Amino acid sequence: SYSYSLYPEEIGSYFIEPAYFTSADTVYETPPFSILVLPNPEGIKSRSRKYKKVDEQMTRKEMPKKEEPIFRKKKKKI
Predict the structure, then answer these.
(1) Residue 21 forms beta bridges with which residues?
(2) What is the pTM of this model?
(3) Angstrom distance (rounded) from CA 47 to CA 36
(4) Alpha-carbon distance 22 to 36, whole Å?
């Protein structure tokens, strides 16, 4: 599985490239995606409700169930 957090510093539209990894001679690829960062004039910061304490290392008991990651097999170049 994989996870990441985004903390944009500027307003705008961003494209996140796919991540790749190889396992047993197969290359896997995460889907690319776009995000739109909008102004936050009130400075509101939110954290996922899934976590009891985001800033501390979590124990297995505190970790939420993870959703199945979406991977696509990438064709090998010959």
Answers:
(1) 28
(2) 0.45
(3) 18
(4) 30
